[in-house]
Specification:
The chain is an alpha+beta fold. The chain contains 19 helices and 16 strands. Strands 1, 2, 3, 4, 6 and 7 form a six-stranded antiparallel beta sheet that branches. A four-stranded mixed beta sheet has the order 5-11-10-8. InterPro entries: ABC1_dom (IPR004147), ADCK3_dom (IPR034646), Atypical_kinase_ADCK (IPR051409), Kinase-like_dom_sf (IPR011009).
């Protein structure tokens, strides 16, 4: 029924070919250099061949292989430019498209999951997918009531392929290192594998998306399409037009980049505060820049296309983190205290939350020095994210010779923070791809619990304040003393003489 490669042996062989292929191309490159070609030209050829194979294998296999590719694509900004160049085009293709499954297979899934009369639900249905992703693809259609809709169809066998891929990838995660230098891939694969059941559950996805849609229904900045219909392996939602964020990254104006970046940061922090859910798949393929309400995409450069009115469309709620109280207050508290330079308080909080294990002893000042460069965007009113900034941070932490690397190896990431950490890093990666100038502090102050201090005076200070207030009231209520000071009276005495004087207290 499915054209998705599912046999474990076949998929494993294709995945294993990635690191082996890299090693083979390195040997080929050495031969070219011995033959007289320059190292620079050979390196560029090797990188391009590796990028081509990476996209081909991960895209064709879909499943966990493609999921990993999409996750890695947002981190290309952290790679040295001479390495990132060849990978950028190949990896970013994974954000928007993949080889589609045939229309025949799509029709079979719809018949099996929606019913043999599935066509009666649609006035129109486009067999050619508008997007193909890791475990499913999206078709544009018109619902029977005339609404444009997106029909998301899960690949048959996607669950089995997803688990198999991630299991196989985790076994040789170290060998994937040359594909994305400086990145620890194994924890990323482990976290993805732990969320397979959630990723495949379209009922859960429909619930998460509808909760967001209800909360943001009248929001001027964020648009979440409502859910129209859901059944096993099929999800129908409202269709939204707009410019994919991947296109803004490639060709957007500076105004578009800045607006998209500001709204992306706003959604990252406001979403959990407003819905208790964290959208956990922030790659560019899941976002659109939309024109103001009532305008078309073509109007975005016209008089109604003022950048301050563009909106962010958000798609794909297959992976979310459930945070009933919003983002943990610890994040806002520790960020604020780090900005204040309170090394001891930051260290104690990190230890209390499990970021520093009891068996580890670190110098608080060293921890503060490690954190400050990372949170630079929160230190200023406005910050321009860039690939060069992210590369400098990645190099500082990844260099085995640096103090930051040595300290980072001793820190721990508690399980409850795993997804928050990945989503935050991924969002920063996208902001750097955009090159957006963002007022991040505005979003932190508005939405991150603990970032703005709550002043609670101690009992002594409160008592002193109350006593002072009572003294002021007592002074205001006391009568003025009858003193010798005399005030001229505007009248005259009965004898017709000079002005009469009265004690000031009798006026």
């Amino acid at each position: 029924m499915s054209d998705l490669p599912r046999k474990a042996v076949t998929r494993t062989a294709k995945l294993a070919a990635l690191p082996l292929g890299f090693a083979g191309r390195a040997t080929w490159g050495l031969g070219k250099r011995i033959g007289g070609k320059s190292a620079e030209i050979v390196a560029r050829e090797v990188q391009q061949r590796t990028a081509d194979q990476l996209f081909k294998v991960l895209g064709e296999l879909k499943g966990g292989a493609m999921k990993l590719g999409q996750a890695l694509s947002v981190f290309e900004s952290a790679l040295p430019e001479d390495v990132a160049g060849p990978y950028r085009a190949a990896l970013t293709k994974l954000q928007e498209a993949a080889p589609p499954m045939p229309a025949r297979t799509v029709h079979e899934v719809l018949a099996a999951r929606v019913g043999d009369d599935w066509r009666e639900l649609f006035l129109e249905f486009e067999d050619r997918p508008s997007a193909a992703a890791s475990i499913g693809q999206v078709h544009r259609a018109v619902w029977h009531d005339g609404r444009p809709v997106a029909v998301k169809v899960q690949y048959p066998g996607a669950g089995q392929a997803l688990l198999s891929d991630l299991t196989q990838l985790s076994r040789f995660a170290r060998l994937l290192g040359p594909l994305v230098p400086g990145m620890d891939i194994k924890p990323l694969i482990t976290e993805m594998r732990d969320r397979v059941s959630e990723e495949l559950d379209y009922a859960l996805e429909a619930q998460s998306q509808q909760e967001h849609a209800a909360e943001f229904v009248d929001d001027p900045d964020v648009v979440v399409p409502g859910v129209v219909h859901q059944s096993e392996q099929v999800l129908v939602t409202e269709w939204i037009d707009g410019i994919p964020l991947s296109e803004i990254i490639a060709d957007g104006t500076s105004d578009q980049r800045d607006r998209a970046g500001q709204l992306l940061a706003r959604f990252l922090f406001s979403g959990p505060a407003r819905t208790g859910l964290l959208h956990a798949d922030p790659h560019p393929g899941n976002f659109r820049l939309l024109p103001p309400a009532g305008s078309d995409v073509e109007d975005m450069g016209g008089p109604d296309g003022h950048p301050g009115r563009w909106r962010l469309g958000v798609l794909d709620f297959g992976t979310v983190d459930r945070l009933p109280g919003g983002l943990p207050r610890t994040i806002g508290d520790s960020l604020r205290m780090t900005l204040d330079g309170d090394a001891e308080a930051v260290y104690e909080m990190l230890r209390g939350e499990g970021f520093v294990k009891d068996s580890i002893a670190l110098a608080p000042d060293a921890v503060l020095e490690y954190l400050l460069p990372i949170i630079e965007p929160a230190q200023v009113d406005e910050f321009t994210f860039s690939r060069s900034w992210l590369r400098s941070q990645a190099a500082r932490i990844a260099d085995p010779r640096s103090p930051a690397h040595q300290l980072g190896k001793q820190l721990n990431l508690p399980p409850s923070y795993l997804l928050i950490h990945r989503v935050t890093l991924s969002t920063i990666g996208v902001l750097c791809q955009l090159g957006a100038t963002v007022r991040l502090r505005d979003e932190l102050e508005s939405w991150l619990p603990g970032f703005v201090p709550e002043y609670e005076p101690d009992e002594d200070a409160l008592e002193e304040m109350l006593m002072g207030a009572l003294e002021d009231v007592r002074d205001d209520a006391a009568p003025e003393e009858d003193v010798a000071q005399e005030v001229p009276c505007e009248g005259h005495d009965s004898s017709g003489g000079g002005a009469t004087t009265v004690p000031s207290g009798e006026r």
